[in-house]
Specification:
Length: 260
Amino acid sequence: MLRGLLSSGLVPKSAVGVSDVSEAALRTLQDSNSSVAYATESTTELTHRYGDGIVLLAIKPDMLSQVSQQIATPVSGLVVSLLAGTTIDTIQKQMSRNNSHVCPVVRVMPNTAASVGESATAIARSENCSDGKTQLVKTMMATVGMCHIVPEKLMDAVCGLSGSGPAYIFTVIDAMADAGVKCGLSRSLAVDLASQTVLGAAKMALESKQHVAELRNNVCSPAGTTIAGVQMLETTGVRAGLMAAVEAAVNRSKAIGRGE
């Protein structure tokens, strides 16, 4: 996501500082292509420099307590959190500890397609986050794809659908490519055809005024090849499997929020 933001030009590299425990990640961020102004292993040093600006939390949920304890001074700026299943209330308590100021928080759930500027992102804000700050985050996220503002109660659903969604689609592409190889196509050609098919279908779904079921039906001619394939998808439970996958991810996000 950081790569996408920097590539957009909206956020200048000179204004960005990064903390990471991985030396390899820090070296990558300091190379000539994606350099940032400041990169360190110390969260304390980073927040001394940038704590009154926008602090982006891109860590595992179970690391929040550890990271917040490394912050020498409470964050006075805006906190943008990418932590799955972690509520705004939890983030505010951790980031504003021992301080009367409760920092505004925006929860963000992008997906890995942000790296190519095609993320499906949703954001939710705290009650004390102004319209201006919320719009700023939305504008930032719009540089790496589409972005919608939703109530916080829907963030688990967003996580399960679009946050985890690329993995489901990669599985679909891989399965389609395997079938193509089985039927005689080279691996590279099969992957290219399957990937472009998913890309084209997604573009049609986004740009067409028709329901996706209508778009599917338009491809299914009587006694044709496509309806035979669609029937097999229904027979083997692909639709139910995808729905169950989303629901399982949603439930896992909720469990993380409960500390499980």
